[in-house]
Amino acid sequence: MPTDSEQMQVLELISQGKITAAEGEELLKALAASEPKPKPPARRILTSDPAATGYSPSEGASLAAELRKLGIEKVRLQELQEMRLHDVNAEYVRELVSLGLDDLDVDELVNLRVQNVTPDFIRALREAGLRDVDADELIECAVHNVSPDYIKTLREAGIDDFDVDELVELAAHNVTPDYIREMHAAGLEDFDADELAELASHNVTPEYIRVMREAGVEDFDADELAALASHNVTPEYILALREAGVTDLNADDLAECAAHNVTPEYIREFRLLGIKGLELDDLIECSDHNVTPDYIRALHEAGITDLRLDDLVECADHNVTPEYIREFRSLGMKGFDTNDLIECSDHGVTPDYIRSLNDVGLVGLDADELIELADQGVPAEFVRDMRIVDPHASVDRIIELYEEGYNAADLKAMKENGFLADDDK
User: Fold this and answer.
1) Domain ranges in the chain?
2) Is 303 in a helix, a strand, or coil?
C-alpha cells in the first residue's frame, strides 16, 4: 500500500492538472503492486500438526494436550520425529505427569523412554524406598542397572542408608549383596555405601582382608584398606619391611611407605650407610626428593660425609651432585660449605665458568663474588681484557665497567688517560 506521503503527492498532481483522476488511480495501483511482500515467519511445527512425523490426528491432539500440562506448547519437527521414533505417546506422558514428574522437557521425555524408564519402573523404585527422584536420577538408575530388586537385596544385606549417587556407585563397581555379606564375615562390619563402593573400586576382597589380618595388620578402617590395596601393600611387602627392621607401622604408615616408594631394600641400604635414626617421615622425604643410597654413597666418595638430612635434601633439590662437588674441590674451592655450593648451583656458577676465570688470572674468589659475576653474565674474555690494563681491578669494578658497556679499546683508552683506577684508590 502506498504511503501517506505518496498518496498526497499523487493528489497534488491531480489538483494541479498535471494528471487526470483516472491516471492518478492507475499510479496508486502501480505503487501498491511494486511494494515487496513481507516474508512469512519461520514455521514451527505445532504438536497438533502430526503429518510430518506419522502421528494420526487423534494421536497428535492427545499428545499436544499432555505436553501442554508440562508447559510445552510447541515443538520442532526434529523433536516430533524423535518422540515418534522412541514411542513417546500421550499415554506415556500422562502417566509420568500422574507420578509427579510434571517439570520435564522434550529431551528428558525422549531420554527416559530410550532408557526404558517406565511408569512401572518408577513405582517399583518408590516401593523399594527410592523416592523424590528426578528425571536425570531415574535415567542414571536405568543406565547402571539400579533396579528395585537390587535395592531390596542391598537392604536385606544391611545397607539401607543411601542416595541415588551412592546406589549408582555401588552398582557400577559390582557391589553385590554376596560381597557385602562376605565383607561382614571377614570382620568388616561398620561401613556405609560410599565406603563399600571405595573398597570395591580398589579391589578390596574378603580374601585380601583375611591375609592382611594374618600379616598382623588388624586396626584398619575402610579408607585405610582402600589405600593399602591401591598402593599394592601385600603381606609379602609387610614381611620384607619387618626383615628390614621396620616393625611398628600401622595401616596408614604402610600405605604411606608404599605410596612414596619406600621399599624394604631402600631402608636396608640406608642402614648399611650408617644412617639408622631416620623415622618414617624422614625416609619419605628422602625418597620424594630422590635422595637415594647411591646419591649418598657418591657424596661420601666426594668427601662429603657429615651432611644432615636437611642438607641432603637441599643438595638433591638444587642439583648439587657428587661430580659438581668433586670439580669444585679440584679447582681449589675446598672451603665452600653446603650453602655455598647450593647458591653457586642455583646461580649457574659451573666448574667450567670458574676454570675460565682462573685461566685469565682471576683466582681465589669466594661464593658471593662468583655469583655476582655469573648473575651479570661477565665473560672471562672481559675479565682478561680488564686485567691486562688493570691487574688489580676488584670484582665490583669489573662488574661495574661491564654493565656500563665498555670494551677492550675503551678500557685501554681509559688506562692511558688515567681514569681506570677504582674510585676508592
Assistant:
1) 4-34
2) coil
Give the tens place of pLDDT for each residue, 324-379. 988 988 888 877 888 899 999 999 999 999 999 999 999 989 999 999 999 999 99
CB contact at 8 A, 164 and 141 = yes
Q: In angstroms, rounded to a whole number, what is the distance separating the alpha carbons of residues 158 and 188? A: 13
**376 near 403, Cβ under 8 Å?**
yes
CA distance 79 to 113: 14
Give the whole-angstrom CA distance, residue 225 versus residue 71: 51
Q: Quickly tell me which residue has 655469573 as its cell.
A: 374
Residue found by looking up cell 536420577 in the block: 137
User: Over 121-161, what HEC string results?
Assistant: HHHHHHHCCCCCCCHHHHHHHHHCCCCHHHHHHHHHCCCCC
pLDDT tens digits along 135-165: 999 999 999 999 999 999 888 888 877 889 9
Alpha-carbon distance values, 368 to 311, 343, 401 (Å): 20, 9, 18
Instruction: Count Cβ atoms below 10 Å from residue 180 Cβ, excluding itself.
Output: 21
Averaged pLDDT for residues 405-411 = 86
At 272, list the grid cell.
648399611
Q: How many other C-beta atoms can be found within 10 angstroms of the C-beta atom of residue 222? A: 20
DSSP state, residue 147: -
Is the distance from CB of 171 to CB of 143 less than 8 angstroms? no
Which pLDDT band, with edges at 50, 70 and 90, does 289 fall under? very high
